[in-house]
Amino acid sequence: MRTSDVPEVVIQRMPLYLRSLNDLAARGAKVVSSTALAHEVGVSSAQIRKDLSHFGEFGKQGLGYEVDYLRSQLERILQTDTQWHVLIVGAGALGHALINYRAFEHWNYYLSAVFDSDPAKVGQPIGHLTVQPMSELCNTIQERHVEIGILAIPAEAAQTVADELVHCGVRAILNYAPLHLVLPEDIRVSHIDPVASMQSMTYYL
Amino acid sequence: MRTSDVPEVVIQRMPLYLRSLNDLAARGAKVVSSTALAHEVGVSSAQIRKDLSHFGEFGKQGLGYEVDYLRSQLERILQTDTQWHVLIVGAGALGHALINYRAFEHWNYYLSAVFDSDPAKVGQPIGHLTVQPMSELCNTIQERHVEIGILAIPAEAAQTVADELVHCGVRAILNYAPLHLVLPEDIRVSHIDPVASMQSMTYYL
DNA sequence: GCGTGTGAAACAATTCACAGCG
DNA sequence: CGCTGTGAATTGTTTCACACGC
After folding, report:
1. What is the CA radius of gyration of chain A?
2. pLDDT at res. B2
3. Is the backbone of residue B190 left (phi > 0), alpha (psi -120 to 50) or beta?
4. How far in angstroms lies nucleotide C14's C1' from the CA of residue B44?
5. Which of B13, B16, B21, B109 has a 20 to 30 Å separation from B42 between CA atoms?
6. How confident is the model at residue A190, as a pLDDT?
7. Could you give the C-alpha distances from B1 to B5, B6, B52, B56, in angstroms and in order?
8. Pairing between strand B84-89 and B109-116?
9. Does A20 touch chain B (CB under 8 A)?
10. Chain B window 148-187: which residues touch A at a Cβ cutoff of 8 Å?
11. Mind listing the pLDDT tens digit for each residue in A129-186?
12. What is the pTM of this model?
C-alpha cells in the first residue's frame, strides 16, 4: 500500500498497537487475536483488522497475530527501527522534563541538542546536554542530521523558530506552543496542548 | 443543542477557536469573519460556521462575529469561566513542569495538590505546592472538591491510581502514562503521549 | 471451530453552494 | 454587497458479516 492512501487516523492508531504489542511481549504473550489486542488498546477488533490490512496480511487465520512478528512489522512501518535525531528549542521546565524523559531514547528518538534564546540559560547542563545559543541552531541541525524539532517555547516565538527549523532542514515538528503553525505541506506537525485537552474535558463535566 | 448530539471532534476544536479569539482580542480585533478565524486556526471557514451552529447563532450576516461576544460564549460552553480544581499524581520532571506551567491558572485550572508514592519526595516543595503522600489522596479530593486529575506517573501504576481517583470522586483525567485506561463511561479521559505523536510523524519521513 | 481479511452497508464528518439578512 | 447559517452532496471512517484457510 502506498503512503498516500492510508488515512491519517490509521497512522495515529498504529503507535497504540505497537505500544500494546510491546506490553504483551513483555508479559510473555506469543500470539494475540485482534479481539484481545482491541481490548488492550481500547478500539474494536474490526478496526484493528482493517487498519492493519492497509499494510499487508500479518495474521494467521484461526490463530491470530504472532506478537513479535507483528511488532517488528509495525516498527518497520512507523520507522521506529531506525535512529532519529531530535532537538529541543526551549530550556524551561518543559524542556527539562523532555530531556529527562527516558521513553524517547527507548523508542530510538535521540535528543541531540537543546537551545534557548536566553543568554542566562546558554551553557547550563541539562541531563546529558548543554544549552546552546540559537545562533548555533542551523549548524547543529545540519552537522548532526537532525530531522525532528520539539518546540517548548512561548507562542510568540514559535512561528519564527519553526520557520528557522524548517529552513535548516528539519522535517517534523512536535509543537508544545499554543498556536497553529503555518508551514510547508511536506513538513509534519504534531501539536500537544494540555489546556485544550482540559477544556475539551470540562465541556462534559 | 444538547450535549449528546455534538460530535466529539467538534468539542476538540472549540478550544482552538477560543484560543485564537483570545489572541485576536489581545491584538485589538473587535470583529472576525469565519474566513479570518479559519485562517488563524488552520481549518476551513465552513467548518467553523458548522461547528458553531451546534451551539447557536453567534454571528451577524454581512459582518462576522464580535470577538468578545463569541469568546464569552465559547468560555461558557467549555465551562472555562468557572474555576476547576486539579491535582497531579507524580512529582517527577513532568509533574514539576506541569506545576510551573502558568497557562493552567490562566485558564482557570487551579493545581490544588501533588502526590507521589516515593517517601523521599513527600514533603518536598514544588512551586506553591508540597508533595503529599498517596494516603492523603482521597481526603484531599473530597475536601478541596477536586474534579480533575493529572497522571504523571509510569504506566505500571497508572490504572491503579486512576481507579483510586475515580473512586474518590474525580470525573476527568489527563493521562500522561503510556497505556489505555479502562474506566467507567462517564469519566472523561484525555491522553497525551509524545512518543505516539513522534511515531505518527516518522511514518511520513 | 476460530479468527483473519475484506467487500458491502451504515454511519459520520466535511465541503459545497446558496438563500437570506443586515 | 458581504458573510452567516444550513440543507444537500460529497467524502471519509467504522462496523457488519461472512468466505476462506489454518
Report:
1. 19
2. 46
3. beta
4. 9
5. B109
6. 98
7. 7, 8, 11, 8
8. parallel
9. yes
10. 148, 155, 171-172, 174, 178-180, 182
11. 999 999 999 999 999 999 999 999 999 999 999 999 999 999 999 999 999 999 999 9
12. 0.96
d(CA A197, CA B192): 9
Cα distance between residue A10 and residue A38, in whole Å: 14
pLDDT, tens only, B140-177 = 999 999 999 999 999 999 999 999 999 999 999 999 99
CB atoms within 10 A of CB B143: 11
d(CA A55, C1' C15) / Å: 29
Nine-digit cell at B64? 462576522
Q: How far apart are CA B119 and CA B96, in angstroms?
A: 17
State how far the Cα of B46 lies from the Cα of B34, in Å rounded to an integer.
Answer: 8
| Residues facing residue B84 across a β-bridge | B109
Contact residues for strand D with beta carbon within 7 Å: A 7-10, 43-44, 46-47, 49-50, 60-63; B 33-35, 45-46, 49-50, 52-53, 57-65
Rounded distance, CA A73 to CA A81, Å?
Answer: 10
**Residue B43 pLDDT greater than 70, yes or no:** yes
Q: Give chain B's radius of gyration (CA, Å).
A: 19
Under DSSP, is residue A181 helix (H, G, I), strand (E, B) or coil?
coil
Side by side, the strands of the sheet bearing A109-116 are A125-126, A129-133, A109-116, A84-89, A148-151, A172-175, A188-191
For the segment B69-124, what is each residue's pLDDT rounded down to a tens digit? 999 999 999 999 999 999 999 999 999 999 999 999 999 999 999 999 999 999 99
- CB contacts under 8 A, A 77-106 vs B, are 77-80, 84, 86, 92-94, 96-98, 100-101, 103-104
Residue A56 is placed in which grid cell? 499487508
Assign A4 a pLDDT band (cuts: 50, 70, 90).
low
**Cβ proximity of B144 and B85 under 8 Å:** yes
Other CB atoms within a 10 A radius of the CB of residue A25 amount to 15
What is the mean predicted confidence (pLDDT) over A82-86? 98
Output the distance from B7 CA to C17 C1' rounded to whole Å: 23
